[in-house]
Write a structure and sequence with these properties.
This protein is of the alpha/beta class. The protein has twelve helices and eight strands. An eight-stranded parallel β-barrel has the order 1-2-3-4-5-6-7-8, surrounded by six helices. The structure holds 2-phosphoglycolic acid.
């Protein structure tokens, strides 16, 4: 496996934060700070901020993503947004399977698969989130959990389509808790995910495949995490709401 075959991706996940006006201000603050990044830079923002974000990021190296999408093309799904609608708004990335969607909004491995499918069918890049709960880590079933999440989500995804998929390994116990996984814990699971991609597709696909770590990644711990062979960047929650912190993580991934 060869890290130099992959460009790291640093993606912010703003969750339920920022108004459109605040979005414009924050992206304008970030733009000069990440302009010379040697990694891909993505900001996933709330639906209502997408227009402001796309407008503010125009002409810069920041790409805009959404935090979820529905699996159907259209129809009677009150409160939902389709992948086609996102694409039409200038969105390039979408997160699927975030643990907050799984935990609080009833997402299952099967609906995560369906959302991923819809995103790919509409030409969006997917940041597919997987990760274990603390109890599962304590029961030593982390690998089984993550492997089955990945297998179900990617069922039917071709090797060509896989080029538009990133997996973010986010141990649920590390999200928003300040309890980051150690770099070795992150590496162990990110490597297992890459091995699974090799098993399901090919070595070539696995070598190119981007696997991020997410969960309390910040300006201080980013260096150590992204230095690991199989950690190709990160999905950043809290620290993506502050321009200097996010820029420091982008810098760490640009080395
Ligand atoms: P955090 O969130 O960086 O605030 O832990 C990460 C995520 O949920 O993607």
């Amino acid at each position: 496996m060869n890290k130099s075959l992959r460009k790291a991706v640093i993606a912010g996940n703003w969750k339920m934060n920022k108004t459109p006006a605040e979005t414009t201000a924050l992206i304008n603050e970030m733009k000069p700070l990440v302009a010379d990044a040697d990694c891909d830079v993505v900001l996933c923002v709330p639906y209502v901020d997408i227009f402001a974000a796309v407008e503010a990021a125009k002409g810069s190296n920041i790409k805009i993503g959404a935090e979820n999408c529905h699996w159907a093309a259209s129809g009677a799904f009150t409160g939902e947004v389709s992948a086609e609608m996102l694409k039409a708004c200038g969105v390039e990335y979408v997160i699927t399977g975030h643990s907050e969607r799984r935990t609080y909004f009833g997402d299952t491995d099967v609906t995560v698969h369906d959302r991923t499918r819809a995103a790919l069918d509409n030409g969006l890049n997917v940041i597919l989130c997987v990760g274990e709960y603390l109890e599962q880590r304590e029961q030593n079933i982390t690998m089984e959990v993550v492997r089955s999440q990945v297998k179900i989500a990617l069922a039917g995804v071709s090797e060509e389509e896989l080029g538009k998929v990133i997996i973010a390994y986010e141990p649920v116990w590390a999200i928003g808790t300040g309890k980051t996984a150690t770099a070795d814990q992150a590496e162990e699971v990110c490597k297992a995910i890459r091995d699974l991609i090799c098993e399901l597709y090919s070595k070539e696909a696995a070598d190119k495949f981007v696997v991020q770590y997410g969960g309390s990644m910040n300006a201080k711990n980013a260096d150590e995490l992204v230095d690991k062979e199989d950690v190709d960047g990160g999905l950043i929650g809290g620290a993506s709401l502050k321009a200097p912190d996010f820029a420091a993580i982008v810098k760490a991934a640009s080395k």
